[in-house]
């Protein structure tokens, strides 16, 4: 299966959810060539990252009342995105590839001339149209260029000043590359050099920057537990545990996901014991495999279930709550989920965050700490959640100043007033929020 055909198939069938996993399965089943997988992956990412922008460009050249089959409309969006963003790929080859794919379906053949005409118009005029949107004073236009869904623009306005929003939206235009965490830097860097993988040293402890996005399994030493693909923001957030927990006491990871931060905590703190809770059985099994790969599973106990009802084996002295969130700080790197969100789902997420943080504060020992983390840049999921929790728990107080957090560094921004943000100001950082709370 060729790259264009694969991209259209995934975009039509996955509806933007878990597209990367769907592509991997399709590539294995169809025995796709590496260059076709790369092209399909690029097209899928381009479409999902700024879908509403491609809808706007495409809509300029389609009659408002014209109803198109989903496959045809998806083909137009894919063509629009590819024409505007693919580098070193002929626009004629892209358009012809899309047209030829549509020709295989009899019901779509009557739209071939329309698709061809619209894509050639976008090829001629699209770059100028995007340039005008980028210069526009309208936040709606800037959101389109940044790939931020228009439905949530009011949440950004409540979170940041207009100048800050424009700055963040500019950050979302940066390419996303992989950061790798390793405990054995010299050995790992030598392996990268032997494999001719380009890398850069980072000022973040344990982090190595790559010049591309990679699949973890393609990294030398991955299977042996030598490294983990992990954004620098995630590394910074999880490293806070080491600074504040009491040795040998239990650490509770309330929403452990696939175990990336849990693995870091256990590797950084050789005397630590960890209890991991995860609602999804699939993610819990992934976390178990991750901790086995890193050779730290013997100091961890994994439980699958609802973090609002599970009981820990003993009272923890430190709770890390990496709460489920909109993921708005990672939309540039992981654009799949944002188009599945709306206000109803967003409100449900913030309600869950409040319940989880309240439970964490009830569970932790007196004198212990709760680290609240999201990968969101929206106040509704961050400062507002912390403020409500502190009001309900007068016995708790936030630790406002933390070691190694330099607010003169553009990567960090103080919350208003609680916690701090890690800003996605380079290709290896995602947008994160952290707040550390102590129970008196």
Short structural description:
Helix content is 46%, strand content 13%. It has 440 residues and is an alpha/beta fold.
How would you describe what is shown here?
The structure is a single chain. The chain has 440 residues and is α/β, with parallel strands linked by helices. It is built from 16 helices and 13 strands. The chain has helices at 3-14, 19-30, 34-49, 51-60, 70-85, 91-103, 112-135, 139-146, 153-159, 162-171, 185-194, 232-244, 260-268, 281-293, 343-363, 383-392; strands spanning 179-182, 199-201, 207-210, 227-229, 250-253, 273-278, 300-304, 318-322, 369-374, 396-398, 412-414, 420-422, 432-439. Strands 5, 6, 7, 8, 9, 10, 11, 12 and 13 form a nine-stranded mixed β-sheet that branches. A four-stranded antiparallel β-sheet has the order 2-3-1-4, covered by helices on one side. Strand 8 (318-322), helix 15 (343-363) and strand 9 form a beta-alpha-beta unit. Helix 1 (3-14) packs across helix 3 (34-49), helix 2 runs antiparallel to helix 3 and helix 15 packs across helix 16 (383-392). The N and C termini lie far apart (61 Å). The relative contact order is 0.09.
């Amino acid at each position: 299966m060729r790259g264009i055909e694969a991209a259209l198939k995934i975009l039509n069938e996955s509806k933007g959810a878990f597209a990367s996993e769907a592509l991997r399965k399709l590539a294995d089943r169809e025995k796709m060539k590496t260059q076709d997988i790369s092209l399909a992956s690029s097209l899928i990412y381009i479409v999902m990252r700024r879908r509403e922008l491609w809808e706007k460009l495409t809509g300029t050249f389609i009659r408002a009342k014209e109803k198109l089959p989903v496959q045809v409309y998806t083909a137009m969006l894919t063509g629009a995105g590819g024409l505007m963003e693919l580098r070193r790929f002929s626009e004629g080859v892209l358009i012809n590839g899309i047209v030829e794919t549509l020709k295989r379906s009899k019901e779509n053949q009557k739209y071939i001339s329309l698709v061809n005409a619209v894509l050639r118009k976008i090829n001629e005029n699209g770059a100028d149209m995007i340039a005008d949107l980028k210069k526009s004073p309208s936040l709606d236009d800037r959101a389109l260029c940044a790939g931020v869904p228009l439905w949530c623009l009011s949440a950004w306005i409540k979170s940041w000043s207009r100048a800050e929003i424009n700055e963040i939206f500019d950050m979302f235009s940066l390419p996303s590359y992989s950061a790798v965490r390793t405990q054995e830097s010299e050995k790992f860097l030598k392996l990268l050099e032997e494999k001719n993988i380009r890398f850069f040293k980072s000022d973040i402890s344990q982090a190595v920057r790559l010049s591309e996005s990679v699949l973890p399994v393609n990294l030398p030493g991955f299977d042996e537990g030598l490294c983990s693909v992990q954004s620098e923001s995630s590394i910074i957030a999880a490293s806070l545990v080491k600074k504040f927990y009491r040795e040998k006491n239990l650490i509770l990871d309330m929403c452990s996901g696939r175990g990336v931060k849990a693995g870091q905590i256990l590797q950084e703190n050789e005397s630590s014991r960890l209890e991991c809770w995860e609602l999804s059985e699939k993610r819990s099994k992934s976390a178990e495999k991750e901790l086995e790969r890193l050779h730290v599973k013997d100091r961890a106990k994994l439980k699958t279930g609802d973090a609002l009802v599970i009981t820990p084996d003993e009272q923890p002295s430190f709770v890390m709550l990496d709460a489920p969130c909109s993921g708005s700080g990672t939309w540039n790197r992981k654009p799949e989920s944002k188009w599945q969100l709306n206000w109803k789902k967003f409100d449900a997420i913030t309600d869950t965050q409040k319940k989880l943080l309240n439970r964490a504060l009830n569970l932790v020992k007196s004198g212990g700490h709760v680290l609240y983390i999201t990968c969101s840049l929206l106040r509704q999921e961050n400062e507002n959640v912390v403020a409500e929790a502190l009001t309900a728990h007068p016995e708790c107080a936030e630790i406002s100043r933390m070691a190694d957090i330099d607010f003169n560094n553009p990567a960090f921004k103080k919350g208003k007033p609680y916690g701090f943000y890690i800003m996605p100001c380079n290709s290896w950082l995602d947008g994160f929020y952290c707040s550390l709370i102590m129970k008196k």
